Amino acid sequence: MKLKKRTKRIMLIIIGVILLLLIYVGAKTWVAVGKLPTGERLERVKQSSHYNGKEFVNTIETREVTAEDGTLKAWWNFLFKRVKDLNPSSPIPSEKIDLKNIGREEEIVV
Prior knowledge:
By secondary structure, the protein is mainly alpha-helical. The protein has three helices and no strands. The protein is 42% helix and 0% strand.
């Protein structure tokens, strides 16, 4: 009985080490997608009011954690807090549209 517990524990440690190695190798060999702007696009980026010479900056300051009580409290509220009026009290008005018969020249939001 004691040998089985020890074997399980060793196997879990080995699996954990293998997972950590896979994560490490994956992170080290990760290839970024995309490329830096060049030519005409680079000039448009430089002229943007949101570009400060090194990176894009939001014009409105945004907080990373929007909850005053912290991240855990925000997750707790998101997952478990009851929200008043989450479902509409009456049916939402809608109109059925035959999408196949809408002309291409017609401007419409669906």
